[in-house]
Amino acid sequence: MQNYVLDSIANNAGIKSFGIISIQGLSAPVQVEPGTPFDVLYSARNDSTTTQTVFGYIWDITLQQQIIGSYWETQVAASQSYSSTNHFTGITTAFSGEVRVGHSMGCAEWTTQTDCVNNGCYWYAGSCHSDAPACSPEDILQCQGFDLYKCVNGNWVLQQTNATQCGYIPPVCTDSQTKCEGTTKYTCVGGQWANPVPNSTDCGYVEPCSPENALRCEGFDLFKCLNGIWTKIETNSSVCGYVPPECTNGTTKCIGKDKYTCVNGFWVLSEANSSDCESIWTQPWVIPAAVVGAGSIIGIALLLVRRK
Length: 308
Description:
Layout: E1 4-11, E2 17-23, E3 30-32, E4 38-45, E5 52-60, E6 65-66, E7 72-76, E8 81-88, E9 96-104, H1 113-118, E10 122-124, E11 127-129, E12 141-144, E13 147-152, E14 155-160, E15 178-181, E16 184-189, E17 192-197, E18 215-218, E19 221-226, E20 229-234, E21 252-255, E22 258-263, E23 266-271, H2 294-307
Parallel strand pairs: 1-9
Antiparallel strand pairs: 1-3, 2-4, 4-8, 5-6, 5-7, 5-9, 10-11, 12-13, 13-14, 15-16, 16-17, 18-19, 19-20, 21-22, 22-23
């Protein structure tokens, strides 16, 4: 029966540091009869700064494939050494192979795009990554809301906020502001003119009137229906309840002994029995002698006596 032939011991690409690798303590090539148990002994040291997965398997040189059931692996901490003996019992098919050992490198350790991709990693931004890029291909554009992003080194980078390319419409007005176009009224909503109201009185729309020559009041002003339009014919009309002012605001007058003040165009009692309104007859009379003749003095004296 043909033997197994383990004719070489190979260190797989990427191995950090391996000490002794042997098969049953012997150097390759070693012949092992099918179905015969055998051991693969090896020691390894992880010289990297992170934990690494160290693995090994038997490789069929002829078929260029891994022998089923021959794979093993273990975790080796950073800057630590590890020794292992792997026992094989169930390989019954003859082959010509070799023992391969190595370690699973982190994606960031691969320095070429080919190695990176071949080992299930992602190559972008000039280096190898374990996570897929957020975007691809480079320089593609994308909108998020109204903001424009560009794919740069596998990541979305904000290029512009409120971009017109993303449907942003710059505001043309301030919210709640209003305007008129003809007799149509518009209100600003979200920075844009909206909610048109046709025939708005706020925009000068005048509702047609009837019948012709009808009258109506707006406040104190009198309007008349002329040719279907309400036309003002009198301001401050008495017909509309307007009462003309009696006086000028702030002026005063006396009625008897009571003092009145003008408030909003009307006389209002401001002081009863006001000293400002005493009868002129109760005031002392002073008559300069230089301008009064004797006859005048007599006349005054007679008048005063007669009032008594």
